[in-house]
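Quick start: load a record and inspect it. Here is non-specific serine/threonine protein kinase:
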Amino acid sequence: MNRFHVLHILQAITILSRIPLSAGDHRSILWRGDSIAVSNAAGGGEHVLVSPSGEFSCGFYKVATNAYTFAVWFTSSADATVAWMANRDAPVNGVGSRAELRKDGSLVLQDYDGHVVWSTNTTGTTADRVNLLDTGNLVVSDAGGDTLWQSFDWPTDTLLAGQPMTRYRQLVSASARGLPYSGYYKFYFDSNNILNLMYDGPEISSNYWPDPFNKWWENNRTAFNSSRLGGFDTRGVFTASDQLQFNASDAGDVRVLRRLTLDYDGNVGVAVAIAVRVAKALAYLHHECLEWIMHRDVKPENILLDTDFEPKVTDFGLVKLLARDATATGTHLSRVQGTRGYIAPECWMVGRPVTGKADVYSFGVVLLELLRGQRVCDWAAGDLQQLASWIKERLKRDGDDDDGGEVSAWVEEEVMDARLRGDFSHVQAVAMLELAISCVDGEPNRRPSMNAVAQKLISLHDRGSSMRFA
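Running the structure step on this input writes:
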């Protein structure tokens, strides 16, 4: 089972901020005959539904200039992360549009000219109210509390905790970061009862996960359970009837809000996820083993990916073992060992002590190559320190200007792998670039520890996708 592949496309997000609102601030129920107007969406109040706990909001969500969708989002997330949209492919006008629970029982979304863009198709029922529940589920129910329609049955690109993935539904990615329109990736149960990831593009369409060239049992799945049911719980554990299972990085903590999102792409997410695992492995060697272990030959050739995209740090032929109390002073090397282009500057100096910061330097080079998509020695023309100084100065200058757009444009045009064509999280890429530059600092004492590197990457990975975790 390609467990990593699903973790970079299906992004499990942990949202830590929980700020409940008082009951008097908002309402959680839209009664029969009532409506929510788009023109008042920014003002909140009576034109936004908020769940009783305050964790979810429902109303009009701005996706472009004068373009809105009727949506459910996480109230306290910094970017109002969306969990569900009614009209992702047909945004309505910013003035005059409204969502109304009509007296005929149907919840409808009308554009400024009265045209019905979307409806729950519950006309002729005894629908009495629309409730936004603490689960993030938007429910149309009758006076007796019986559910007539619910958003949990109509997911867009996201599942919430407790929301079922069934044979009749699929997740469809967004077309690009920040654009709500339906994209090319789909997550669904096929006719063999297996959960699949499909790329359904304008020219080609194919399943690519799990491995389509394997039999289902070779992918550690089962086709015998025809219930076709999946979902994840409040602990962050996803399970499905075909025996697929994967966990969030902090699985088990029930105090946090979670979502599972089918990402529009995830290429930088792949790089971050690989980097996290390699950094954690090196941090273990440096900080957790009984003896301090310095690898001394960290490079791409010694980082192997298995069929699950799990990286393995290999080739310990140059490893150096030291007593734990010698980690600060390091060791003196009698000769230069390692691979040119990845060797830290201090390793070339006879008589200078070498510490685990040499591995940090090598890892920083690998990070740069993950972002660039080519050898640093080819990119830097043999002078990495000059390249690092230039990048550091440019990042500092752009940071002083406080112009995030300019930083993103520069990173995309002059640093990132051109084959990505801009399809990556710019915020995540800049943070990863800053970390890489700190790792290749010419002075060992200014480099972060391997443990600090791992923790930084973990935070990037977990923030991940919405800057995605993946």
